Amino acid sequence: MSGEIISLTSIGRLSGSKRTTAGGCPSAQSHDDYDPALWERIKDHPCYNEQAHHDFARVHVAVAPACNIQCNYCNRKYDCSNESRPGVVSEKLTPEQALRKVTHIAARLPQLSVVGIAGPGDALANPKWTFQTFELISRNLPHLKLCLSTNGLALPDHLDTIKSFGIDHVTMTINMIDPEIGARIYPWIFFDHRRWTGLDAAKILHERQMAGLEGLTAAGILVKVNSVLIPGVNDHHLAEVNAAIRARGAFLHNVMPLISDPAHGTAFGLGGQRGPTPEELTEAQERLGGSGVRLMRHCRQCRADAVGLLGESRDADFTLDRIPEQPVLDLAPHHAYRAHIEREWQHRRAARAAAGRQLAAAAPRGPAKLRVAVATNGGGRVNLHFGKATEFLVYEADSTGIRLLGPRRVENYCLGGFGDDQRLEAVIAALAGVDVLLVAKVGDCPRARLEQAGLRIDDSHGQDYIEPAIAACFAAARQAGLPPRRASA
Amino acid sequence: MAYTIIADDCTACAACELECPNGAISAKKSIYIIDASKCTECQGKHKSPQCAAVCPTGACVPA
Description:
A: 2 domains, 15 helices, 16 strands, globular, B: two-stranded antiparallel ribbon
């Protein structure tokens, strides 16, 4: 299996053999990691293609409120428009309202490429509304990809329908293959007209998930598996989950951190179960890195009514009360954007290739690896002011390539004219393990504090593509023989 | 003999409506209600009332 990691830079396939034998330019074009037919299927899906997440947007339509299982990390009573996490929405839609909403958004958000159904319950616990919505979307907006998320319990019953709609991307949440562990995550399921608890529930869920996964991959559908990393519960079990989904042909494995805030009222949150730190998440992902299933590193754990690029919240701009009764579909901006992206990707590929050459040619001293956090607003560029960032993308560079490790979420430091010192400290904590911070600009006060905390700040690459900027940082650190911050911290 | 829905606990997720074998449950404004004249507590059809078995918040209870 090639490339266990989807690399934004893709600086070469990062599979073990390729990595050790890379002799020439390590910066292959990203889509060279895939065969051309596969690339066509994923190139504009922001979740399935790491490169696309800088450029393409998705909309989740919240037509599926009901759920058939209870998870200890979910509380269906809680709905806050300020929260970004799965299972949460502010407004539930009928299929007709969903079509209206997507039609309106498609005309205003040229980046839109995917319509997904991800709840707020389970897409397949509401099959009528889910498939009515897909029917309406595919008939009226055939240029958009259809995508759904499920816990898998009802999946074996709907395989034929999924295939008949040509749904090419399905995400399933699989947190365990051992019912003993499952019983600590799922208090109950509703299946075959009754409620099951304990080991029985976890066993049924596991068997249905595996049967569903096998059915999807046998049909050639690309399956992303989400696993919630729950420290002390399934953290040491995820390698087994990874092996099980690999054996059944999953395309992508997304290990996500448990979100566990007592204020959300989830069983885990109230029971004191903690989520992983950013570094624990990275370590868990790294442990799976060589397994053979591609790892998703750019997930933002978005809401079931998310709109926009990943990491961007446009849902409040597109609530039903802001959408006309008869939205006009105008695809001209969409087509113009596609043409723009084709050109843009050519430039970016060239920039990546140059970055790969610079990495390979870096001085043979100084840090072997460099972790770089980037403030970006999309487009694959260093283009965001430090104070405006609500997340930083953390990359790791070495002489063979650049890999995205994942986003680190923060609250923006700048509050319009002044900075929030508490938030600054939280940003510093979130950037643990990072050597260099790449921003378009940063004010003098936060810069001084960030440098005092040991971060090197570089604002000389504003508007540059991310990979060449990181490669330049790496080459400079090598040239100067700088020690990595992580080693000295 | 019928079930009812505790309004304060209903999240309007519709799970009960989807499972009710009698078509006794429908949306009313922001919550769901059970039509007592149609509710049989699922007797003769299922081992337990389906609304209570599927409800995520324990809102479906004997009236």
